[in-house]
Amino acid sequence: MHIATDDLSGPEIADFLHEHLAHMRSLSPPESTHALDLDALRAPGVTFWSVRDGDDGSGPVVGCGALKALDARHAELKSMRTRPARQRGGVASLLLTHILGEAAGMGFTRLSLETGSDEPFLPARRLYAKFGFTECPPFGDYRPDPYSTFMTRELG
Q1: What is the pLDDT of residues 31-59, one digit of tens each?
Q2: Cα–Cα distance between 132 and 119 in angstroms, integer?
Q3: Residue 152 in contact with residue 111, Cβ under 8 Å?
Q4: Domains in the chain, start-ordered, CATH in brackets?
Q5: pLDDT over 90 for what percent of the chain?
Q6: Cβ atoms 107, 71 nearer than 8 A
């Protein structure tokens, strides 16, 4: 697998993100769906990575993730997605390891995230816990929401 910063200009990643948004919207009410669309992921302060099969990055997109700067030291993990056929195959762990390293290299000392609180999001919450994230109160512009779980971790 190959992880690279993605400028979000290709049709394959656009389709991949469209599927991600559709899936998130099918699981949570509109006011509780916090996934970013393509334009929001292109905003200043957001870095986006895609994961492709093949060592040279020529294969299909199998995963993605992003960092959104909240301030100089705190960033939010956004748009973590693994192609359904590749779930539980190490894509998310590989990408999360990469993003944690990149975030620390960018000078962030804290990384937070919002994910769903329902059963379909349990694998994601387990993954984040495995990587040292713990539940926390809402951060940034978030408010308490029964459909959301907020998690954070310090970067060493």
Answers
A1: 888 888 889 999 999 999 999 988 887 88
A2: 20
A3: yes
A4: 2-154 (3.40.630.30)
A5: 62
A6: no
Which residue pairs from 96-103 have beta carbons closer than 8 angstroms and sit at least 24 positions apart in sequence?
A: 96/65, 96/127, 96/128, 96/131, 97/131, 98/3, 98/49, 99/49, 99/65, 99/67, 100/131, 100/155, 102/47, 102/49, 102/67, 103/67, 103/75, 103/155
